[in-house]
Structure formats: C-alpha cells, structure tokens
Amino acid sequence: MILVVAEIKDGAARKVALEILAEARRLADAKGMKVGVLALGTLGGGESDRLAQHGADRVLQVSTEALGAYAPEEWAEAVRAAVDAAKPELVLFGGSALGKDLAPRAAARLRVGLASDCVGFEWDGDSLIARRPIFAGKAFARVGWNAARPRMATVRPNTFRPLTADASRKAAVESITPGQVKVRARVAGLEAGDEEVADLTEAEIIVSGGRAMQGPENFEILRKLCKALGATLGASRAAVDAGWIDHSHQVGQTGKVVNPTLYFAVGISGAIQHLAGMSSSKTIVAINKDKEAPIFKIASYGIVGDLYQVVPALTEEVEKIRKE
Amino acid sequence: MNVVVLVKQVPDTETKIQVKDGSVDLSGVKWIVNPYDEFAIEEALRIREKLGAGKVTAVSLGPDRVKEAIKYALSLGADEGVWLKGDGVALGDPLAVATVLAAAAKKIGFDLVLTGKQGVDSDWSQVGPMVAELLDLPHVSVVVGLELDAAAKKGVAKREIEGGLERVEFELPAVITAQKGLNEPRYASLKGIMAVKKKVIPEWSLADIGVDPASVGPEAAGVRVIDAALPPPRSAGKVLEGDPHDTARELVRLLRDEAKVL
C-alpha cells in the first residue's frame, strides 16, 4: 500500500493531499498496490468518498478528539499506529508547514528514511527513486531508500494535478487509535495572517517585488496587482533585508522555494539566490527598467520599463479581462 | 541554562552550483555557516546574556573544514565548541546525522538544543525534529519568536505556518529550529576573533559518544543520493518595450492566449 497522510481542516483534506493522491495512484497502479489515506482529523460528511473519488482505496482516520491541536509527539505516534495497521511500502506527506514538521519526527520514530520536498517519483524495478531540488533548486538530486519500510517522503505542493473525480468510487472510514505518548509541545493558538490568500508555496500566481520597490509604501501597487490576479505577494531578499516587507514573503535560497504557474518578478534584477527559489515556475514575467538585468535571461516574457507605470497599467488590463 | 547549538557548514548561497559526473562539484566552493544556524547561534547567545548564566556549546559534524564553522560560533561568543569527526558517517542521510548529533548533545548535557530549520545545501529540513525524537524530547520547528521561562522549565515559541503563525507551548528540555526573523545575528568582534585562538576544540569520534559506526554508516542510511543534475536551462523569451499601456495590454494578451496562464 501507498499511504497518503492528509491534514484535515474543517473536515476537509488540504488541496495538496489530492495532488499527492494522484501520484500515489499512478505509482500504486504500476505495482498492483492499494492506495490509502491517513486522515489526521475527523472527516466531514462525504469527505471519505471524495478522497476515494480522487484515488484512495482505503481511508484511515484518527479523530480530531484523539489528536487535539497539533502536537508533533502525538501526531508522529498516530502515523506510527497507522503504519503498524496498514503496513505501507511508502508514506507520502504534503510539504506543508505541518507535513515538514511531522514527517521527520515520524521517520525518526520508525527509524526509516525520509526524502523531503520531492517533485517526482519513478519505479526502477522494485526500487523507488525520488527527484528533489537541492540548493533551493539550483540542482536536482535523485534519491533512493534503503531496505527499511516504509519509505517516507514529503511532496512539494503544486507539483501534481489531482485526478478527475470518479463518482463511482466510495470508501468507508476505518478508525485508527494511537498509543499514549507524553506531549510536551502543542499548538496553543494562532496568529493568523491573511487567510484569503494562498501561501507562497501553494500559490498559483505570485507577484514579487525587489530592490526597485524603494520602500514599503510602494508595495501597495503590487498588492493591487495581486488582488486583480488572485495572486500571493512575494519579495526578494534585498527587499526583506531592507525591512520593507516581512521575511515570510521572501522567495529564494534563504526564503521560500516556489513553483507557481505564473511568477511576476517586479524590480528584481535576478540574483542567483532569488533565481534558485523561483526558476521552476511555469511562466515567468520580468518587469525591470534595466534591459540587461539577469532576470530577463530566464523570463518567458519581459517588459522593459518603469514599474511605477507598467504595474498599474497591468493591473488595469488584468481587471478588464477578469470582467469579461 | 545550557544550550547546545548544532551548526552546519554549507556552500555560500552565492555559489553557482556545478555538476560533474553526476554529482555536485564542490571544489573551490567558499564555505559558510548555514544562514539558519546563525539565527540559532544568536538566539543561544541572547538566552545566555539575558539569564546572565549558562553555557553555549557549538557542535558541528563533518570533515576537518567544519572546524571553521565552530570557530565562527566561538568568535561570536559561544563558550565551547566540539568537532564531531564525520569519518564513516553517511553525511548525506539526515537520520544518520541526527543520530550522531543527538548522542553528542546528550554527552554535553543541555536544557535546550538550537539549530537552523534546514541546511541551505541539501534542504532536507529533517535533522532538528529527528534529534528531538531520538532524544525523546519535544521540538518546535521554523521558529520566529522564542520566550523561555527557565525557572518553570517551559517556553512559548512562535512558528511560521501557511499565512500566519502558530503559538506553541513546550516544556524544557526541547529542540528548537530557527527561521529567518527570529533575531538579527551579530557580527564577530575583534575581541571575539582573538579569543578563538586560545580555545581548544575537542575532537570526538563515534566511539567518544557511544555511537555504533554500523548504525550511521552508508549501509544503514535511510536515504542516499543516487546522482544530481542541473535543471533544464530556461531561455529568454519575448521582451516588450515601449508605451507602458501598450506593453501591459500585449503582455496580458500573451499570458492569456499564448501561455494560457490567465
């Protein structure tokens, strides 16, 4: 079996879980394996069927009551208990903040190998090979696991496309009961940011500003473009280190590595650390007044011009086609 | 409070990565302290300064060159450093690395282990939580704010998640991994740099920390890198120049009709 670990929010699995299910299905079908989902939290009505429709054969669930707010020790034990019950060959986690925190704890608990932030998988006979970025995407490594089972991996969001729902598929919910563990760290509260906006690592469209933004106030024109596009705001290290915008917006080697469908680099010259973090974006747009800026060498489309004129004009044009 | 800081040496982030014969060619690379570990070192020093007591010990695992990373931590103000010789350790396997670091931290003794949220070379983001699990301790990762109550042996950490922050309450001892934003790392003072010359850095082998070489060697490695390659090169596309309104209109048309991303 291939087991997909799904974070549950308000009864529903995160989008990345459906993305991973599609890849799990492909890998399982090649080997005649089953696909399971481990839901960490109580599923809402119809959600187990939705998971089945997107590729799951079995749905295991640890209830929200059994788990409580996120606590790495307790949740790693839940993963261990599910592995014990389902004996999977491979466990896939979403590369979310929670998945990246939980997976290494669970892997150490089971003393098995974990490949992080994978963007591709292939069978080589009975060996599985994962592909993952290293040096923030300046290079890619192929990695393999030793004989210990299950193999574990976290998968980068936005990498795989969910399957089209097959309405004929259904799955019953099987309950998993973790063992008792000491819990000495637990989430006690949230300081939510803008919930309406997708995180950089999950965003379909990103608009990033760099040194040429000149100050925090000028990011306002980028926020307007973001709003028109439904995009998430990013920034270069130069803009973050200047204190114009919070580091949680930073794209690059000491920030987030992103792979949206569409990336706008506005007033960003294209330092190597920044290019590393965004060069796997499907389409890259550069807006810069310097025609020689390195960013143009990798941009799918570029506008040479003053961003203070180009960006508002662009926002207007996007609003026009969005209305159509 | 005694703090152990786990420090990794990595290629400078300015490095243009080259691949030779299927592996990353690191010859001639400039080595630096992992940027996220710098936040960990800084936080350890601030904790000691705030409490006016305790000890900061910087630990690094790897070949001879990693002594430079330990010296850097000492120059910033760490009290002691320990070099863990990497002979026979599968340094490409986070579980093996965490096993060695956990054993060393245990031998040193601590109330808190601090390290970066990830190394900016292999980008595994695994070692901190693994060390915690192997030592049966709580952990909080990707931390941008940390408050400790040494007397009550507990703390509160703010951890970065999608679109916000989580407040995590934890008990000490614990393992914390640092994210950018936790603090503003200091620079080494001349006095600090001079003081390093007098420090002796103990060299510990696996035997010194009671780790069975077979448990952390290449045969035991949970994951191994098969090979590496550069990403397919991107070529320059269409560049528009001229009136801002005309170029903006043309760009939107291209994004919609040609790239089909709008």
Structure, described:
- The complex is a heterodimer of chains A (324) and B (262).
- Chain A has 324 residues and is an alpha/beta fold.
- Chain A has helices spanning 15-31, 47-53, 64-67, 72-86, 97-110, 219-229, 237-241, 272-278, 307-323; strands spanning 2-9, 12-13, 35-40, 58-62, 90-94, 114-118, 120-124, 127-134, 139-145, 151-155, 173-175, 185-192, 205-209, 232-235, 262-266, 283-288, 301-304.
- In chain A, strands 1, 2, 3, 4, 5, 6, 10 and 11 form an eight-stranded mixed β-sheet that branches. A five-stranded parallel β-sheet of chain A has the order 14-13-15-16-17.
- In chain A, a hairpin with a 4-residue loop joins strand 8 and strand 9 (139-145).
- In chain A, helix 4 crosses helix 5.
- Chain B folds into two domains: 2-216, HUPs (Rossmann fold, 3-Layer(aba) Sandwich), CATH 3.40.50; 235-262, no CATH class.
- Chain B is 29% helix and 31% strand.
- A nine-stranded mixed β-sheet of chain B has the order 11-10-9-12-8-1-6-7-13, with helices on both faces. In chain B, strands 2-5 form a two-stranded antiparallel ribbon.
- The chains are: A alpha/beta (324), B alpha/beta (262).
- Strand 17 (301-304) of chain A pairs parallel with strand 15 of chain B.
Globally, the shape of chain A reads elongated
Please state the second-level CATH architecture of the largest domain in chain A.
3-Layer(aba) Sandwich
Distance between the termini of chain B: 55 Å
Per CATH, the superfamily of the largest domain in chain A is HUPs
- The CATH superfamily name of the largest domain in chain B is HUPs
CATH architecture of the largest domain in chain B: 3-Layer(aba) Sandwich
